[in-house]
Amino acid sequence: MGPAAMENARVERVLAGLDAAFPDPRCALDFRTPFELLVATVLSAQSTDVRVNLVTPALFARCPDAVTMAATTPEVLVPFIRTVGLFNNKARALVGLSRQLVALHGGEVPTSLDALIALPGVARKTANVVLQNAFGRNEGFVVDTHVMRLAARLGLAAGRTPEAIERVLMGLVPQDRWDRVSHQLILHGRATCDARRPACGECSLAPDCPSRGSV
Ligand code: SF4
C-alpha cells in the first residue's frame, strides 16, 4: 500500500471511529421550525447550546415566527436573551433578519446558502447549520472551533481560517456525511479532545491520530 492509500485508509478509520463513538449525532439546539433554528443558531455564537436552549422556550413563546419578531424591537428581545452574551448585537441581528425574512421571503427561512448569508447576523457557519439541520441540505461543512481543532489534530485538514478548513473537509468527506461528521467532531471535541487537555489515554481514535499524546 502506497502512502496515499495508507493515508486514505487512516482517514476512513477515523471516520468509522467517529461513527462507532457517535452513531446518532444530532444538532444540540432545540427547535421546531427552520425559523427557530435560525434564531437559536444566531444566539449560539460565542455561547453554548445549553445556555441557548434555556432561553429559547420563552423567546419563542413571545416570538414564534419572523412576522412577530419583525414587529418587535431589539429592546423587547434583550430581556429574553441577556444570559447568552453579546445580547445587544444579537437582539439587533434577530430583529433585522426577521424584517428581511418578511420583506424578501414572505416570512419564511430561505433554503439557499446565498440567500441565508445575505441576512444580517448570518455568517456561513450559521447558514450551513440551518440548511443541514432544518432542510437536510449539505451545501457546506459546518466548521466551528471544535471542528477546526479536531480537523488539525486528527490530520484531516489544516488551515488558518474556517473557510480554508471547510474546503479541505468538503473534498475529504463524502457530501452525504458532511453534517454527520461535523456533529461527530464537535461531540468528540466536547467529550474527549478538549482544547487544553485532550484525554488521549481514553480516546478511541488515538491509534489513528497523529497528535496523540503530543498536544
Ligand atoms: S488522540 Fe488525543 S489529540 Fe487525538 S483525537 Fe484523541 S484526544 Fe484528540
Number of domains: 2
Instruction: Report strand %.
Output: under 5%
The hetero compounds bound to this protein are: iron/sulfur cluster
Name given to the CATH architecture of the largest domain: Orthogonal Bundle
Largest sheet: none
- Helical proportion? 55-70%
CATH class of the largest domain: Mainly Alpha
The whole-number mean of residue pLDDT values reads 95
Order of helices and strands: HHHHHHHHHHH
- Tally the helices: 11
Output the CATH topology of the largest domain: Endonuclease III, domain 1
List the uncertain runs.
Answer: none
Q: What structural class results from the helix and strand content?
A: mainly alpha
Radius of gyration using CA atoms only: 19 Å
Seen as an oligomer or otherwise, the chain set is single chain
Task: Give the tally of β-strands.
Answer: 0
Report the end-to-end length measured between terminal Cα atoms: 29 Å
Overall 3D shape: elongated
| CATH homologous superfamily placement of the largest domain | Hypothetical protein, domain 2
